[in-house]
Each structure stands twice: as structure tokens, then as C-alpha cells.
Amino acid sequence: MLEFTVDIILLQKAVAPLAEIADEANIKYSSEGITMMALTTDIIFMGVLKFRSLDLENFFCDLEGTGGVDLKRLYEILCLLARDPEMDPEGEEYISFYARDGDDRIQITFTNRITHTSFPLGIDMTEPEPEPELIHQFELETEYNVVAALPSWDFRGILRLLFALGDRVSVTITDKQVKFSILNVEIALHKERSECIIWGTAEDCPVQLGFDIDHFNPFISASFLTNMVWILHSDNLLALHQLNFPVGAAGNIMLYII
Question: Are residues 148 and 196 in contact, defined by beta-carbon separation less than 8 angstroms?
């Protein structure tokens, strides 16, 4: 049996970046938690939402399972049920998920905080999509040699400005700065000015990666979940560049450039 409860607005915001990537996602669950993965059709961009069992409310799972879920439908349900926190600041609302071994449907129960009325819903589970062999790499323990972090509001502002000028933004990380560039325009955040955090790189061996305009919406959506955006790089040629966005205290969204 799988059962857990989560803040509905938090889950809505966490699912949004994945819904920008694909219409469907593979889901895996076990006693350790829940992982949802969405992959673009051209297999160059992947989003992973991971919730840890210890950080989920009322989490119980005594089985391991996989399946496919309709991301668009799940996101629509969450948007319909979530209340606007600016219009209704009086606390949080939660949504519960339940599935038994062998079920092909996840049961969803939403209880209105004001009327205390429960609404039973559900979403069908399908066969998971086949995963390319390269995708399994993200499940392995990767040692990241370079870690950089920058404020999410700076991250959003820089991407919005630069993607107005072209379709691909280059990112260069040295021991002193994180530099974003497109065409002849450059924007740098400096470590010595406390504009960013950098660990593990050197001036004579910079880390370089690129963001395509197709990545823009998932990046922006994910950045609203956290105060800091983390960029992780491994010297392992088989490892994937990762952008990590903490989801409150419950988990993380990892966006991978393949």
C-alpha cells in the first residue's frame, strides 16, 4: 500500500515544471519516497521530482512500484483544487494519495479546509514509458566536483533578459564568478561580492554548459519553489549537468541537460 499527504499548493508548484516538459511522467515509489520523471520527446532535457519519505506527512509504503501518470491531468486537478494563498492566507490545505498493490489508479482525496467536505478523485496509472539507457545514470550516486548557487530572483531575471536576445544562453563557472552570456552580452555574478556561491572549480579550468530556450519555462517555474538555484557539475563524462531546486523541506526538483 502507498499512502501520503502533501501540501496542495506546494505539489502544484512542484509538478508545474514537469508539466512544461512532457504530457506524461514515469512514477516510482518505495519505502524511501516517490520519484516522478518527465522527459522531452527528443530526449535532451529531463525533469525529476523527488519527495523523500521522511519529509512527507503521513507517508506509508510497504511495496515498490512503477507506472505512468498523465501529468497534464494531474496538474489540472491540482490547479482546480489549490487555493490562492494571496487571496486566502489562513493556513494550508492538503491532498492525500492512496494506492494498493496491483491498483491501476491512484486515489486522491481533497478535504476542503473551510467546509471539511472531502472530494474523492483519482488518476489512472498506465504502463511506464521505456527509459533510454542513458537516463538510468541519474539514479546512480554521482559525485559532483563543482557546485554553484545563485539567488533564484537573479536566475529568473538573467534568463528572461538574455532569452529575449536569442535562443541559447551559455553559462561559464570559474572559481570567482558565474557568467551568463548570449551573443556579445554577458552578465556575471561574483563570489567575492557574495552574489553567488561557488565550490570546487578553478579559474584555469572553467565549467561550461548551455541552456536552450526550450528549457526556459521549466527553469522559471522551478525557480519559484526556492530562494537559491543550485548548479551541479561532475567531471564524469557520463554524468549529466544538474540544476537543483529544493521543494520546501520535502524534496527536490532536478532538471538535467542531456
Answer: yes
Return d(Cα 27, Cα 128) in angstroms, integer: 8
Q: Of all helices (H) and strands (E), which one includes residue 120?
A: strand 118-126
Asked if 109 and 222 sit in the same domain, the reply is: no
What is the amino acid identity at position 229? V
For 188-201, write each residue's pLDDT tens digit. Answer: 999 999 999 999 87
d(CA 213, CA 139): 26
Domain endpoint, select from 78, 100, 131: 131
In angstroms, the CA 233 to CA 148 distance is 9
Residue 167 pLDDT greater than 70, yes or no: yes
Domain membership of residue 7 as a residue range: 2-131
> So what's the pLDDT on residue 257?
81
34's grid cell = 516517490
Q: Which amino acid is at 121?
A: L
Separation CA 139–CA 158 (nearest Å): 30
Q: Residue 4's closest CA among 48, 36, 47, 52? A: 52
Distance CA 166, CA 161 (A): 10
Residue 136 lies in a domain: no
- Asked if residues 186 and 171 have their Cβ atoms less than 8 Å apart, the reply is no
Q: Greatest CA separation found in the chain?
A: 62
Vertex 119 angle, CA 114 and 124, to 5°: 145
